[in-house]
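Researcher: Sequence recovery benchmark, item below. Answer with residues only.
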């Protein structure tokens, strides 16, 4: 099959969605399928095709690093798709490139598969800063996402949380639940140079006996990193062997720096900035726990990477995204600052042998997220979309 995948952003920009698409692309190509990625590059001055990726010029969005806006109807861009002649159009976004994907589908008469990655109710503050404005904007946003879903032949979501969101938007049709996956080989301990792990520990200042916690992701308001810093500070300020590292970049970086300084935990909480994806595995292996307070995740890629590395997850309770955590086996959930501290101190009280056994068990739980199983599930959706579309146009 030929599959055209549409995304707002792609490498060199890093995000969970980019990692997801790269995994899908590699899995499809390994099985003999052809893939064309269609994405934007805010730094590009013209359309260009490179290594199976069509980069389209766009106007950069200052508030969202790596993203841009472009005309969703473009005949020059369409000519590349016409030449590729895909069997399936797979949109991984609802905006510029997603709308262009829907335009291509109409012009080329192709089925559309739509993957929803984002709980947009948690992102409305980017366009409507006040709660009052969000109440006005939300019904219109729900109508918009309902109409994107309506135009798709098949819909994919990484967790049941997608079903809950789309039902709120008024979408009643079937939704395929296919959990995100990670390439375990990049993060398994046997594939990582111990010297690189030790170098990462030295760089981070992690000493024997320390309890090191890690977050990897975009530093955006929707990630609730302010809650994470507050809970950490409330419980561990002054206990310097407890450390929290935040890897990533985003619009909340400066506010977080100010919060960390105001809380007096500069020696314990560090913003490490953006780290290239291929350099992340030693950082995961150097730390003990992965922690997040975000309620906006659907099926977190960075959490899966952390679990593949053996890191026990300390996650804020999200009623609609409980599937990633099997309490006591690969992580635990908290609802408040005291619950957050209890999970971490209980882990710290374990013996070294208990921690090692737990780490190995956490890594084992990610085997259900295998790349081959993930790719096979998506291909089944593609095949069904092609069949359904062929019946529709007869």
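Model:
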């Amino acid at each position: 099959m030929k599959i055209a995948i549409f995304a707002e952003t792609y490498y060199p920009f890093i995000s969970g969605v980019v990692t997801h698409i790269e995994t899908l692309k590699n899995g499809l190509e390994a099985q003999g399928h052809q893939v064309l990625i269609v994405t934007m590059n805010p730094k590009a001055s013209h359309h260009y095709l490179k290594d199976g990726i069509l980069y389209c010029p766009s106007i950069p969005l200052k508030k969202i690093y790596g993203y841009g806006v472009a005309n969703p109807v473009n005949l020059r861009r369409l000519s590349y798709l016409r030449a590729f002649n895909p069997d399936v159009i797979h949109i991984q976004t609802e905006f510029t490139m997603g709308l262009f994907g829907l335009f291509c589908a109409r012009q080329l008469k192709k089925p559309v598969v739509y993957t929803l990655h984002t709980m947009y109710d948690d992102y409305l503050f980017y366009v409507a800063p006040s709660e009052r404005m969000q109440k006005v904007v939300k019904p219109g946003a729900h109508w918009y996402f309902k109409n994107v879903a309506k135009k798709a032949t098949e819909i994919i979501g990484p967790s049941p949380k997608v079903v809950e969101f789309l039902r709120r938007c008024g979408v009643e049709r079937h939704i395929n639940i296919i959990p995100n996956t990670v390439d375990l080989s990049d993060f398994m301990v046997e594939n990582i140079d111990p010297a690189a792990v030790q170098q990462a520990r030295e760089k981070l200042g992690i000493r024997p006996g320390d309890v090191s916690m890690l977050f990897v992701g975009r530093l955006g308001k929707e990630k609730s990193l302010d809650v994470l810093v507050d809970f950490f500070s409330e419980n561990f300020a002054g206990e310097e062997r407890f450390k929290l590292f935040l890897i990533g970049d985003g619009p909340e970086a400066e506010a977080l720096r100010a919060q960390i300084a105001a809380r007096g935990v500069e020696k314990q909480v560090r913003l490490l900035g953006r780290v290239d994806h291929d350099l992340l595995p030693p950082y995961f292996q150097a730390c003990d726990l992965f922690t997040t307070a975000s309620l906006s995740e659907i099926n977190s890629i960075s959490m899966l990477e952390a679990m593949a590395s053996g890191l026990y997850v300390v996650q804020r309770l999200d009623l609609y995204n409980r599937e990633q955590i099997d309490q006591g086996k690969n992580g635990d959930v908290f609802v408040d600052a005291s619950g957050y501290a209890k999970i971490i101190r209980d882990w710290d009280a374990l013996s070294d042998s208990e921690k090692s056994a737990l780490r190995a068990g956490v890594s084992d739980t990610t085997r259900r997220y295998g790349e081959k199983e993930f790719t096979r599930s998506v291909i089944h959706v593609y095949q069904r979309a092609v069949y359904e579309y062929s019946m529709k146009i007869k």
